[in-house]
């Protein structure tokens, strides 16, 4: 019963809604990144390398049955083990681009957060900060030595 109560509190607080919105936006953003990689980056990269389609770059790891086409899809359907390194390259590039974009977004959010937090900090900076405890103690010692001298 306690678990159900905790779940209800969790769901009512809005965390579940926020999570759902994040997942939906993340899925849509993933489609944008897939398109960026597949339609923009990979064609430019293939122009440099000389291959037009990275998804069909693979290494056959087994025997090809007679009459089977040597395309990645046909080999997979025939059950031939293949190392699809071109597809992996595309997915890895998707990840790097997605990580870079998320980094830039977090960086910008942190910048905006600092900008909105800095005015109170700037107002506090006009008043001198009280000296640390050790400086106060050293000043007391200095002053007491002056009195004796």
What does the model show?
The chain is mainly α. It has one domain (about 1-145): Non-ribosomal Peptide Synthetase Peptidyl Carrier Protein, Chain A. It is about 75% helix and about 5% strand. It has five helices and two strands; from the N terminus they run H-H-E-H-E-H-H. It has a two-stranded antiparallel ribbon. Helix 2 (about 15-50) crosses helix 4 (about 85-125). It is elongated. The protein starts with a helix and ends with a helix.
Protein structure class: mainly alpha
User: What is the strand content?
Assistant: under 5%
Assign the CATH architecture: Orthogonal Bundle
Q: CATH first level: which class?
A: Mainly Alpha
Biggest sheet details: 2 strands, antiparallel
CATH homologous superfamily? Large-conductance mechanosensitive channel, MscL, domain 1
- Estimated helix fraction: over 70%
Mean pLDDT, nearest integer? 80
Shape: elongated
N- to C-terminal distance: 76 Å
Spans where pLDDT lies below 50 across 5 or more residues? none
Helix tally?
A: 5
E-strand count: 2
**How many domains make up the 3D coordinates?**
1
Strand order of the largest sheet: 1-2
Cα Rg: 31 Å
One letter per element, helices H and strands E, the order comes to HHEHEHH
Structure described in brief:
With 149 residues, the chain is mostly helical. The protein is built from 5 helices and 2 strands.
